[in-house]
Amino acid sequence: MEGLSRANSLFALDLYRALSASNAEGNMFFSPLSVSAALAMVYLGARGDTAKEMEKVLSFSSVSDVHSHFESLTSSINSPSASYILKLANRLYGEKTFSFLPEYLESTLKLYHAELQPVDFTGAAEDSRKLINTWVEEQTENKIKDLLQPGVVTEMTRLVLVNAIYLKGDWMDKFNARDTQEMPFKINQNKSRPVEMMYHEQTFPIRSIPEHDLQVLELPYKHKQLSMLILLPNETQDGSDPLLKLESELTLDNLLDWTKRDEMSTRMKVYLPKFKVEFESSLSDTLYRMGMSSVFEESKANLTGMSSQDGLFISEMIHKAFVNVNEEGTEAAAATAVCFVECYRSRPKCQIFRADHPFIFFVRHNPTNSILFLGRFRGPV
């Protein structure tokens, strides 16, 4: 499973950079695992050049058996826990008159626990869309609503493949709400906005990376199975954007080095803003530019591992995510929908960690070293 974790992390950072390129100024939040899981189910049915492109973009080429490793990863993530709620769910919604290969349906059910629900896209596309949205809401405790907007599902839709992920976890050491105060958050050198700044003094895993002008703080959730990691770049004196510099240096090898647990620990005064981020994106164009092109083209897509009927391709891929960080902990959710249509084809002195300017953050499932959620906070809107 280590190979899959690395592949998913490589893809997570690639997707972060691609999304950041088209959204340089705003907050951003998504679940790379949700996107990877959804695309892995497409990859299961892809053949020829379509499969090769997906393999390259998703960094699957070095993973011996992607799908069985995904099964192990999903089982590990969905293991019951008394300290947090974390669940990853998949489902297929297929046009009832369309012929899917039995071996594909058997594999998605066995490896991704994705059951096929027959629906009437041809005669009742709008009812089908609402049915899918209701399932997503149920899986994400009503945090992801209206994933599929009107018009996305049509009478030509043959398959909608959906992944949903939900997390609710309490900090191992909670912040005291009485210590939360309004403070300025520096958007840049010339602009600031007020935020509700939480405060806590405790021993935290922390690491300073002088060569990258960076501090890395780990905030474990109860029982330490999950952690949020904050990558806080030092403020610059020349007026340049420290977050852009950090993003340019954000490679997987650097990230793994920066977040080594055995090299982090000290007593800290931590200031962290309470924040909520909601983010929605159509990933079709982004993935196309990343090199996954043929699966979105009706004349080139080869999804013959899903169905022997020609002409199946992805018409739209939508991702929606939500995160709420407060004194108690974190609640986060995300969903990804892939729509297919058929064409008529040691203890030092107490230090200060003050996250009062833009930073990158991610939530990690520590047993599998998987990035569940990844985002950027540039300030309150």
Describe the protein's topology.
Layout: H1 2-21, E1 28-30, H2 32-45, H3 48-57, H4 66-77, E2 84-95, H5 102-112, E3 115-119, H6 121-139, E4 157-170, E5 181-188, E6 191-204, E7 206-209, E8 214-220, E9 226-233, H7 242-248, H8 252-258, E10 266-273, E11 275-282, H9 284-290, E12 312-325, E13 329-342, E14 351-354, E15 359-365, E16 370-377
Parallel strand pairs: 2-3, 10-14
Antiparallel strand pairs: 1-16, 2-4, 4-13, 5-6, 6-10, 7-8, 8-9, 9-15, 11-12, 12-13, 15-16
Describe it.
With 381 residues, this protein is of the alpha+beta class. The protein is 28% helix and 36% strand. The strands form three sheets. The chain has a six-stranded antiparallel β-sheet. Strands 3-2-4-13-12-11 form a six-stranded mixed β-sheet. It has a four-stranded mixed β-sheet with strand order 5-6-10-14, with no helix packed on it. The model has no long low-confidence stretch (mean pLDDT 92).
**Average pLDDT:** 92
Shape descriptor reads: elongated
Radius of gyration based on Cα positions: 21 Å
Largest sheet: 6 strands, antiparallel
Structural class: alpha+beta
Q: Taking strands numbered 1, 2, ... along the chain, how are they ordered across the largest sheet?
A: 1-16-15-9-8-7
Strand content: 35-45%
How many beta strands in the DSSP annotation?
16
The number of helical elements comes to: 9
* N-to-C CA distance: 39 Å
The low-confidence runs, each spanning 5 or more residues with pLDDT under 50, are none
The helical percent reads: 25-40%
Order of helices and strands, N to C?
HEHHHEHEHEEEEEEHHEEHEEEEE
